[in-house]
Amino acid sequence: MRQAFLLDLAQCIGCEACTIACSVGNELPDEVTYIDISERVRGTFPDLVGGFDNHRCYHCGDAACVNVCPSGALYQEDGLTRLDWDACTGCEYCVSSCPYGVPVMNGGVATKCDGCREVTRSGGTPWCVETCPSDALQFGPRDEIAAEAHRRTEALRDKYPEVQVYGESQAGGLGVLVVSPEDPEVMGLPLAPRIPTEANLWQELVKPASFWVTSLAAIGAGVLGVIARRNHMAEMQHLHGGDHAAAATVHDHEQTATPTALADDQTTPPSTGDDDDEVSR
Amino acid sequence: MARAELSITRRQLLKSGLAAGAGGAVGAGALGGAPASAATAGDPWYRTGEIRTTYNVCDMCPWHCGIVVHTVDGEIRKIDGNPNDPKARGQLCPRGQGGISFMNDPDRLQAPMVRTGERGEGKFQEVSWDEALDLIAQGLNQIKERSGPESVAVFGHNAGDWWWADHFAQAWGTPNAAKPSSALCISASEEAAELTFGFPIGGYEPVDWDELQCVTLIGTHIGEDARNTKMQDLANLHGRGGTIITVDPRFSSAATKADHWLPIKPGTDTALLLAWMHVIIEEEAYNADFIEKWTTGFDRLVEHVADKTPEWAAEITDLPAEQIRETALEMAANAPQALIVPGRHVAWYGTDTQRMRAVYLINVLMGSYGCEGCLHFNTAPYIDDYSLPPYQVEGSAGGCAAEPDEDDDGPLGDLPEGPTGKARADGVQESFLQGPTALQELIEPMITGDPYPIEGLICYGTNLFHSVPMVERTKEAVQNLELFVAIDVLPMEHIAYADVVLPEATYLERHDDLYALAHKTPYIALREPAVSPMYDTRPGWWIAKALGERVGLEQYFPWDGIEDYLNTRLRSIGSDLDDLRARGGIIVQEGKPFFEDFDGESPFLTDSGKVELYSSVLEETGHDPLPEYEPPDEAPEGYFRLLYGRHPVHTFAKTQNTPALSKRYPENELWLNASQAADLGLSDGQRVMLENQDGVTDGPIKLKVTERIRPDSVYMVHGFGHRSDGLSRAGGQGASDNRLQSSYTLDPISGSAGLRNNFVRIASEA
Lengths: 281, 766
Ligand code: SF4
Ligand code: SF4
Fold this sequence. Notes:
The complex is a heterodimer of chains A (281) and B (766).
Chain A: E1 3-8, H1 17-25, E2 36-44, E3 47-55, H2 64-68, E4 74-77, E5 80-83, H3 93-97, E6 104-106, E7 109-111, H4 117-121, H5 127-131, E8 137-141, H6 142-156, E9 164-166, E10 176-180, H7 201-206, H8 209-215, H9 223-239, H10 245-248
Parallel strand pairs in A: 1-10
Antiparallel strand pairs in A: 1-8, 2-3, 4-5, 6-7, 9-10
Chain B: H1 2-21, E1 51-57, E2 66-72, E3 75-81, H2 94-97, H3 99-103, E4 113-115, E5 124-126, H4 129-147, E6 152-156, H5 161-172, E7 177-178, H6 180-197, E8 214-218, H7 228-239, E9 243-247, E10 260-262, H8 269-282, H9 288-294, E11 295-296, H10 298-305, H11 310-317, H12 321-334, E12 338-340, H13 352-365, H14 443-448, E13 456-460, H15 471-480, E14 483-488, E15 500-503, E16 515-517, E17 523-525, H16 540-550, H17 562-571, H18 577-582, E18 586-588, E19 611-612, H19 616-620, E20 640-645, H20 659-664, E21 669-673, H21 674-680, E22 687-692, E23 697-706, E24 713-717, H22 737-740, E25 745-746, E26 753-754, E27 759-765
Parallel strand pairs in B: 6-7, 6-13, 8-9, 8-12, 9-10, 11-19, 13-14, 14-15, 20-24, 21-23
Antiparallel strand pairs in B: 1-2, 2-3, 4-5, 4-15, 16-17, 17-18, 20-27, 22-23, 22-27, 25-26
Helix pairs in contact in B: 4-16, 5-16, 6-13, 8-11, 8-12, 8-13, 11-12
Bound molecules: iron/sulfur cluster (2 copies).
The site of one iron/sulfur cluster has 13 residues of chain A, from helix 1.
């Protein structure tokens, strides 16, 4: 069953309980967390509006990172983009292909939220969801989460006339449905997420199905590689019982086929801190 | 790179554990049906190994949420909110999530130490517990023989302070026991309630959030002040469309959720409150039945606020009169499901008891007391204390219990005295009216010996140089002491001045007394260790007993061990430790939150049995019987008022060194209004030095140039600017608001230290 997160930005008060629960629960080094909280306030004193960005992996239905990953380290399971560090070869393709700038390299491997793999597989709730004191996060079957997102949106309309659900259609439908109290673009959530231009030739070859068709003419000798890669992907999906919904929405992305640079205000992904900190356990 | 490799190694371990034990679960469709239910203690756990769950009470802030601690093969892996706990309700705040990291901080004090260098030099020699305790016992006995037991002060902070600032101090016989959580925090709110309702309101504000429709927060910055339950309550109110009014010089996190933000001129809140009363009375929007039945002095209040118009307040508060009127009416329209939250730290301007009375008066005008969605009555849990011989000084130690004897003549009564006939040295009844022992007022006697010398100090968990104003004075005072004992977890700055340092086990490694909390539903919570203490550290209760036995107080510590103590108490309610564990670590009892629970009796404990809008005690003692607005000190030319507050991942000056928390917010910033920054040619992210009105400098601190604060004030998160060499992460990070508080304004009623009459200018670019 396709699972999803609810992320209610009208509720999030930026407390960072989720970021620390993420880091501690996933037993990451202290400086690593898969959630990045930052303030987003606009206006001039005293006429201000705003709140908090809560930037994290959106678990795209048609996930560019999964599509480009040559090693199978990234794969989909129950609608969540999982990441197996052991399999990661450190090629960084996912880093440069993610339209939301999510994966980052840590110590030579890609890191990002993988939906608390071990916890959710054993029937638990992701750590961030479990702790959020502001009822900004939920986790469950995607259709139920979608219904909850719409219920909340209606309840908030008086307070936030622009409120809407974000993520139902983007990138094959996101696995994080966002209650956006304002126009999503204002909240840093692109209506048409785009894959960055920085991709090198190899990545041109292996980027999502919707893109590689347009790149075909330029491929030349790389074709074999692409085919091999796609076969591998199919294998991985089979192996992990992944959700194949992504394939059905491939063409939704045609409109964004021309890669564009990330907007300047694209929120930055979580990053590591300095190198001097030993993990103490 | 070592770090990342480490993390992968751990993850691999985790994976292989799973592969061995739980492989079959993959894809088995075991996911819960409901969207997001908080996991309960019995939920499937994702690790294999020997998994143990213990019940505890979070000690990362004084809010005391119940927690469940999961250990795997003897190592703590995760802490969750206890779903049975009325405060945690299954969730935790960021600091609570960081508890494991707090315990694992490699900078912790690891063994008892005796000072070998000069005070402040930080030179120590490790000694055995026996040696350390013998030395302290000898020092305490010398002071007792020479000057009497009253000449030893005991300061206590955080969970576990009962063993010291209450139990040990009373058994020993000193009335000079104090907690920073009183005069440096909630005293004004407690004394205002005492004067108005006849009882203190309690540090766990009794607000019936579930049915509340309109909340007003004055300075209370829930969201940055990350008290778990309050964040949940505010979020729920917001989610169900309730009205939020915030009064704050800063566009706080809570203000981002608010329907109305009133960016008030700091220190003028009482004027706003009086104008709100004026509007509510003028518009006849008050609850006449409630006032008739439960209050005295309404007519005088009407007269008092007749000229306190919104226009009058607008001039003072720098808020539009229309906004004042509108918000008053909005509150009244939702009444009685509308109230102003009392808040917790209220030691602001030295006029704080009067401001807090004004807060209570508005709530009462709206009839917002004793009903659903109002202030409710807290009920104390029923459980017996461990039966002990009478204390050497009864009811006067531990600060919080230090109320004057009510049976005596006059409004004040006689102060309890220690064995050699000395009462509190903090100047109560002279420089201020009443209330718990004012910690900051015990510093001067250490220097001057007036009214009598304080020669010894046991400092349990109190961060002396990061919580008490006039830090230089505090340093001078501890230099004067004959004996200075510090019991703590981390090498805070004052530790370097102590003669003997005792390292305490953290809350995850120790028992404590039961948490028996007055609440809407009173309850009793358990703290049990999940792991044994790291290093050569010991629990506070153990230290108190071991020291007590060395100074002839064994009769006050008759139990055979902490489990005996706890079981004895629990048996008084037909329970014991096994039963408490079986109940998920919490026993919830029934409360009497509403009027209907009092069978027509008055729940108020004033002499009149009514809410005293007009305070007879204040009149008799020469204070304003109705709240007056008194302007705060004005900033000198070129200076900004120094405001301070919380960051959600930190508590006091306690967590800045905690690895997981320090990574999220490693240094504090100085919030400076963007137009002011432009005028001064300063830019965001730049580091500056600060100088206050007395020439005290501190920093460097990073500038946060923002529209989110008034131009006349600057703001920083409290608790940074540590200078202890022993704190490898927090040391040298940011600036200390406390160091810049080189003066305070004593509240003549509650003895609170008003901290916000300090001003800074940007002295230089660093
Ligand atoms: S825990 Fe909840 S409220 Fe806090 S930052 Fe995360 S999502 Fe926002
Ligand atoms: S509010 Fe946070 S730090 Fe305080 S007791 Fe609760 S979980 Fe712990």
